[in-house]
Specification:
heterodimer; A: about 120 residues; mainly beta; seven-stranded mixed β-sheet; four-stranded antiparallel β-sheet; 11 strands; B: mainly beta; six-stranded mixed β-sheet; 12 strands
Chain lengths: ~120, ~120
C-alpha cells in the first residue's frame, strides 16, 4: 500500500529556534499534501494544504509566517516551525493524496515536537 | 460547510462482543466517507471508505461500516472485538463542494476493549 514517511519522529528544540519536519510519499506521487496538528485526545486540525509547485493554502487562524510549508516535489513536503515557542509543542501529522478524488489520504506516522 | 459528528468520546466493550462506533455527517451532495484508526503516538491508518455502490463496506481488520443516506450515518462495526482493537477512531468526510479535496474529521472516539 501507499506509504508516507515523516522525519524526524520526535524532536526537542529550544524556544526561539526553528524546526523542519519532512514528509515523503515513498511509492506514489502526491499531488496534494496536508499538514495537521493534533493536540492530546483531540481531533486533527488541518493547518494547510499544499499542491506541488504552488503556495500552500492555510486554514483560518494558522500563521503563514510561523508555519512555513514547501512542497518542492511530488514526493516531498516540508513544514518549518519558525521561532518555536512552548505552545507550538504538539503532534504534527502529514498526509499525502494521489491525484484521484476518490482516493483516500495516506498519513505519515507523525512528529512529536516539544519546545522547551 | 461539511461536518462530522462522533457523539461518543469513548466506547467500552468486552472482548468477543460486537462493537459499534457511531458517526453522522452533514454535507451538501454525495459524500465520500472514511474511517481511520490511530494507535498511541502514531499516525492514522486507513480502515475503509465509502465512495459509491454497496452501502455496506468491508475494510481492514474485520471492520465494516454501513452508509445510511436517510440517517446521514456511517457507523463503524465489528462482530467480535479484540483487545488489540483498542485505539482512537476517526470518521471523516469529503464533500463535492470542496471538490472532494478536503478531508474533514470528527473529533474521534476512543475504543477500549477489555479482556
Amino acid at each position: 500500500g501507499a506509504v508516507v514517511s515523516q522525519h524526524p519522529s520526535r524532536v526537542i528544540c529550544k524556544s526561539g529556534t526553528s524546526v523542519k519536519i519532512e514528509c515523503r510519499s515513498l511509492d506514489f506521487q502526491a499531488t496534494t499534501m496536508f499538514w495537521y496538528r493534533q493536540f492530546p485526545k483531540k481531533s486533527l486540525m488541518l493547518m494547510a494544504t499544499s499542491n506541488e509547485g504552488s503556495k500552500a493554502t492555510y486554514e483560518q487562524g494558522v500563521e503563514k509566517d510561523k508555519f512555513l510549508i514547501n512542497h518542492a516535489s511530488l514526493t516531498l513536503s516540508t513544514l518549518t516551525v519558525t521561532s518555536a515557542h512552548p505552545e507550538d509543542s504538539s503532534f504534527y501529522i502529514c498526509s499525502a493524496k494521489p491525484g484521484l478524488a476518490g482516493e483516500g489520504q495516506y498519513f505519515g506516522p507523525g512528529t512529536r515536537l516539544t519546545v522547551t | 460547510a461539511q461536518s462530522v459528528a462522533q457523539p461518543e468520546d469513548q466506547v467500552n466493550v468486552a472482548e468477543g462482543n460486537p462493537l459499534t462506533v457511531k458517526c453522522t455527517y452533514s454535507v451538501s451532495g454525495n459524500p465520500y466517507l472514511f474511517w481511520y484508526v490511530q494507535y498511541p503516538n502514531r499516525g492514522l491508518q486507513f480502515l475503509l471508505k465509502y465512495i459509491t455502490g454497496d452501502n455496506l463496506v468491508k475494510g481492514s481488520y474485520g471492520f465494516e461500516a454501513e452508509f445510511n443516506k436517510s440517517q446521514t450515518s456511517f457507523h463503524l462495526k465489528k462482530p467480535s472485538a479484540l483487545v488489540s482493537d483498542s485505539a482512537l477512531y476517526f470518521c471523516a468526510v469529503r464533500a463535492p463542494n470542496s471538490g472532494y479535496s478536503t478531508l474533514t474529521f470528527g473529533k474521534g472516539t476512543m475504543l477500549l476493549v477489555s479482556p
